[in-house]
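Notebook, p. 212. Picked up where the previous page left off. The plan for this session was modest: take the two constructs that came back from the sequencing core last week, fold each one, and keep the raw output in the notebook itself so nobody has to go hunting through shared drives later. Recording the first one now, exactly as returned: residue sequence, then the structure token string.
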Amino acid sequence: MNLMEHLPALIIAIPLITAFLTPLVDRASKKARNVLVFISLLITFILVVLLVQRVFDKGIITYVMGASNPTETIPKQAAVPIRIVLEIDGLSAFMLLISIFISFIGLIYSFAHIKEGGGRFYTLFLLMVVGMIGMELTGDLFNLFVFLEILSISSAALIAFEFKRATTIEAGIKYIIISSISALFVLFAVGLFYGEYDLLNMAAIANEIGGALSHIDKIALILLFSAFAMKAGIAPMHMWMPDAYGEAPGAISMVLIATTQASLYALLRVCFTIYNEALHVVFPIALILLGLASIFIGVTMALLQDDIKRLIAYAAVAEVGYIVLAIGAGLYGFLGGGDKFASLEMWKVALKGGIFHIFNDVLDIGLLFLVAGGIIYVTKERSLNKLGGLAHSMKYSSILFLIGLAAVAGLPPMNGFASKIIIYESIYGVSPILSIVAILASIVMLAIFVKIFHAIFTGPKLAEHGEVPKYMLASMIVLAGLIIFFGLFPDIVLKNLVNPAVNALMEYGKYISAVMG
């Protein structure tokens, strides 16, 4: 048996099997449990890298679950794909790499602060990883719903894992309610498609839709759009994000960013692949307006916070806004909106900026959450009013926080500058006002984070604290290193990671023909 042919299935199976083994090993030895989880995720990480390399080199890979020749033959019945099909193109490979990398960094970070209930924590952690990567691998709408449910239930439990405060339970309840509503929308849309076409495969549904939308197709589109926008934390459906990000353990706050990006991936798959050119231009306009709303709400609400993690969470809402704004502009040009904008193909540049910023957002906001989690772990304080002078005893953390805030504010030579300058340039073609608003929001965000840095790290020493544990510090240093690398060498990232993802969005016909022939 050639294991390389079964990479998509193994990437899901290894963490899933380990999730069920973890509680059993935990009863025998805590160290053995940590080693098991670490090795499992490391092997999954390596397999993902191999799969991504194959996709970027050879093109779209399809894998049919249960077939004797899963990578070459797609079983059909009257030209309709049957069985579960995993389909990986440049976009899903890009998202898969982000998800497993961030999960692996989060796992290392968690070894420093998860002391009690580790068996439960790592079981839920692995299930969250399975749900996230499953959403990015599947080519089947119903299984997208299944993986979304796995992701939602495990994430809600992890958000409320440290139930020491009433607000923690409240955050978990908010998240599971929003997730349940989103899942119901997706399931309803799946039922509509199945009733109309007798199909569940996304490529097959896209092939049937063609260039004309029925009333059922329009209802399904509104349901899917609402569900994934809600799960991606796009304003005004962002109400769960500050609570969930703010109350979750440090490592989970970071990984939750990747889970919201998985929902954003599903939204991209719906708009560009399933509906593609049949979409009405009102949808990209809606995305642009929602992106602006996310930026405005994120920045203004961050001004009012005194809890360090809630403040960063509102900054995360604003960063999602930049991504949605760029993708909305790209979809607007993709559908032919704005003759000059479309003719100059600036919409492709907008898509590059938005996709690039997906990775940068996880790195930048993720680093800030890790530093904030370390500060709370060491000082037992969350309020900016009760912190100060930490640079005296937490020199490395202060430098890493400074790198993170510069990246989020879009200062050179950080990665945030590299992606945001592309977004500014491209959306100017839609409307100069969009660029002005985006730039002003970044300036305000810089002022907010300078204030945070001053409140937490400068001034006289208020108490004697040590540096964060080594596992935490190592995780933060890795993210900071990538932030600087992406900022100094953006062309390498754009050429090798971003461009294949953007091309996959534009060449939706290849995704469909990989299944339908």
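Okay, moving on. Second construct, recorded in the same format:
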Amino acid sequence: MNQKTLKRAKELVSQMTIEEKMGQMLHHAQAIDRLGIPAYCWWNEALHGVARAGDATVFPQAIGLGATFDENLVKKVADVTSTEGRAKYNEFIKHGDRDIYKGLTYWAPNVNIFRDPRWGRGHETYGEDPYLTGQLGMAFVEGLQGDDLDNPKAAACAKHFAVHSGPEAERHHFDAKVSDQDLYDTYLYAFKRLVKDAHVEAVMGAYNRVNGEPACGSKRLLKDILRKDWGFEGHVVSDCWAIRDFHENHKVTGCEVESAAMAVNNGCDLNCGCVFEKLIYAYKAGLVTEETIDEAVVRLMEIRLRLGTLPERGSKYDDIPYEVVECKEHINLALDAAQSSFVLLKNDGLLPLKKDSIKTIGVIGPNSNSRPALVGNYEGISSEYITVLEGIQSYVGDDVRVFHADGTHLWKDRMHVLSEARDDFAEAMTVAEHSDVVVMCLGLDATIEGEEGDAGNEFGSGDKKGLKLPGLQQELLEKITATGKPVVLLILAGSALDLSWANENVNAIMHCWYPGARGGKAIAEVLFGDRAPGGKLPLTFYASDADLPPFEDYSMNNRTYRYFKGTPLYPFGYGLGYSKIKYGKATIDKTSGNVGDSVKLSVDVENAGILQQKEIVQVYVKDMEASTRVPLWSLKKVKTITLSAGEKQTVDFEINPRDFAIIDEKGNCIIEPGEFKIAVGGQQPDARSEELTGDSCQIFDINLEGQVTAVEF
């Protein structure tokens, strides 16, 4: 905290009545006119662009940003987001608009671990890997808040703390039971990085319990770990109406008064919801002290001062003009982010398409002309949407005839309620038969994978029921493929699907996530080779539902690439390009050393193709002699580079002591002496990746001597 603003915050709080203090602890904080404190709504969203506050640049959904593996790109996206947010805030205030979604405290990023592909909110995260989630989460926080924390451009929030990733239908009463090993090895890592290294301003608790304690009132999570162990100085906000769950669903308290006291006494400063309206009764009953209330309100007023939301202290960002919103530079960044996120899963040579050799294109599928399939959830409004169909039509112009059919509803068996099942199959077949090449656009959208309670989630409380394409999509794909026409399958979805049949039967598959408002333009440019797809998978694509442990089981055994013992359809870290990327001989500066040593690694990377290509160079580490369960491999370093045709770059890494550390059964972070393996390449060091790419990682053995050494988690 800034000491000057901290002192002033204490002065302001000392002048408030107890009722006024408590009024600041609700997400819709009331005005205190006599102290010059205007009303303020803390609730704002900015997961992939300013959300729910009118027009803004709509970037790819967070999981797509995860697929870029690109910290610099994610930081730029967040920087643009807070710039547009400031521009809009500046104008809202001029018009006296202090409504919800109009403030500067953004409840993003979501750094929960996408541990199970059925989880509906997984597309709000950066994927299944703790390290990647931490790196991209830090980049987002740093971009959103800016470099001057005494004068932040916005305030970021790490959510949902902690051990939170479904099932959505049970989140209000579910108890996530987790070992200390998994807690620290998987679920807390990214939060720690955002708190300690990126200085995130806020942390949001989760709905569920964690080992018996409701997350928004957990002494262990909020007081012992977050405040004491990590030294967090910012504020904690509850998830919306989560504190009400204490007494209504978790049954750990008897009423709203007890729930309010439990939350505040354990370190929750701000209530998204209304339970803190009963906080006055907890105070009068002696369940919470004024000193505890003061601590919470001081934290809230201090960040409001630094943000410049009080008239007495302006901000250096007060002059950001409205004209920056959806400006050309921001739109271009969104297109670049989308193209960097697309993951080419299969290509028999059909891609990139050659416009000059095509007279007709069939664009088929429920996501072919769908705006919802562009934007995911927690989205803003765009002044222009470009669907896949519209992007292709615009790209080819009058030179190529584009036919179109939805073919089927996203998940129902008919397009129209009065029709028979498969009512659009005939038109889809006709389109395919009259086309030289077919672009199939299948997948999901945020109405069927998302948050419990969201409008439209009649499909399954937000979670997926399995990994199959919903409705009649698979049947439609098989019928279109049976025509014998070349098929490019585009998947617009925020999670992994079972694409086993497609992998064996279609010519090319590209996962496009939810690519942003103008995603159709980005897709068309990649389909025709103006840009190459640049992403890698930030999560494992399993071959079958049978590979998944029970959804409710929070043990990491046999989950994610780090612990999955089976053979995936597509592995974490996998993705093809249009150009052949060749890895030269890697070098390492030592093959033996002492516990606590760093290791330097270099590798030459060359673009042997004729198109510019992004490449994501990945480094994995494995402890071969650990005394406890450890990951099969763990991603430890990433660098994203862009190579022109024929270009070669040397990429350098430093593997530090923390990269050799493991988490033991008690949650301790230690380095044990013994043999380690370090792998470097454009993929994960596993047999399936090698089978799919024809390439293998270079692997080094290194032996570290000495004693078991504790290192900072």
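Notes on construct two before I forget. The chain has a mean pLDDT of 97.
Flagging for discussion at group meeting.
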